[in-house]
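Quarterly update from the structural biology core.
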Amino acid sequence: MPTTPVLDGRTIPKDSRIQEIVQQLKDLSPGDSLVLIAPHEPAKLLQLLVDDSSISLNWAPLEKGPDHWRWHFTARVSGTPRSVGEYLVWDHRRLEALLAQSLKLARAGLWPEAVLRFDEYDTGLR
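Predicted structure, tokenized:
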């Protein structure tokens, strides 16, 4: 299984946190992914991403609080508008991959990792 890079926003100073996270997301090439760990619900960041048409990303929650939030981001081809259908296809494939990883890990007896992947799958269904 490929490993997705993780950016722990909790380690970035608060006064520059959102700018640094946005820059790292802008630096992703189409198809590249990043998992963000945030110390709080990243509503301000997500609204900024919605409002900034120069940033082409798909994103979905992996874990929602209370101690931290994890979000999965994948870069899209820049300048192409995203349709609802396109997003749903992306999210469906992401969820299928999480479930497949969960089952593979469970069959291998790697229960803590399997539970984590299944929890991510479950969060995505809500």
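The mean pLDDT is 94.
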